[in-house]
Amino acid sequence: MAIFHMSFSNISAGKGRSAIASAAYRSGEKLFDDKEGRHYFYARSVMPESFILTPKNAPSWASNREQLWNEVERKDRRANSRYAKEFNVALPVELSEDEQKELLTKYVQENFVDEGMVADVAIHRDHPDNPHAHVMLTNRPFNPDGTWGIKSKKQYILDDNGNKKYTGTSKYPKSRKILMVDWDKKEKIIEWRHNWAVSVNQVLEQKNIPDRISEKSFVEQGIADTPMQHEGINSKRHERKAFNQQVKNYRKSKAGYKNMQEKVVNRGHLDSLSKHFSFNEKKVVKELSHELKTYISLES
């Protein structure tokens, strides 16, 4: 049964996230972070199918995943910079893998790339019953010459005579922030979600598949039913937590065993050595151990 799942989020420096690490995790590629001087790589049992779509005025390096996200982080260096917008979307299981990719590519091209964003797409098929895609989108538009554009500009508020307005004794004139693109508006997310439902339903209809999806809740649709839960990453959280605890316990036990082995070996060496100590030498070692706050028993 086709289900609707599409969630949006921001990848930002303010939340301690990295665009390079995010792209490496989603694509399964090994990427070098110029700022941190290190590689990011996350091994996957099933390699994602990844590709990049670029707008017409984007430079050639925007098609290179590693260079793209390094350039994004190099341009947006503020502590609260938002590097990218991301959405996660469930792909209809009623379609073949090629049909899923064709549907997703067409949707991303028309809704984001044609608007000026670079789209870094990664399709995950770790579980046959849960095909989904992660799409990272650039937040900053490109100028016609391929250089980075601006996200917003400051506009001063003027009085009736065309002079800048001030508040009280402030030396700074009043101004407002003018967005150069509308990609961060709530209305756009509503529009994108609706367009995905329309795109999926059109393909399902063309394939004579009766199922349909909607971005609206069951309440909004007047349906008295319980919505299905999309099995995303959180569905396996308890299993991962249990597995991680097992690994942690194993490593702790192994480290404890190794430590005990070392103690036994060291004690054996010490016992062997102490046989050759005179009474005064044993006394010196005992006093030294107290100085080092280490208890050494040389009792025979």
TrEMBL record:
<feature type="domain" description="MobA/MobL protein">
    <location>
        <begin position="17"/>
        <end position="241"/>
    </location>
</feature>
<comment type="similarity">
    <text>Belongs to the MobA/MobL family.</text>
</comment>
<dbReference type="InterPro" id="IPR005053">
    <property type="entry name" value="MobA_MobL"/>
</dbReference>
<dbReference type="Pfam" id="PF03389">
    <property type="entry name" value="MobA_MobL"/>
</dbReference>
<protein>
    <recommendedName>
        <fullName>MobA/MobL protein domain-containing protein</fullName>
    </recommendedName>
</protein>
<keyword id="KW-0184">Conjugation</keyword>
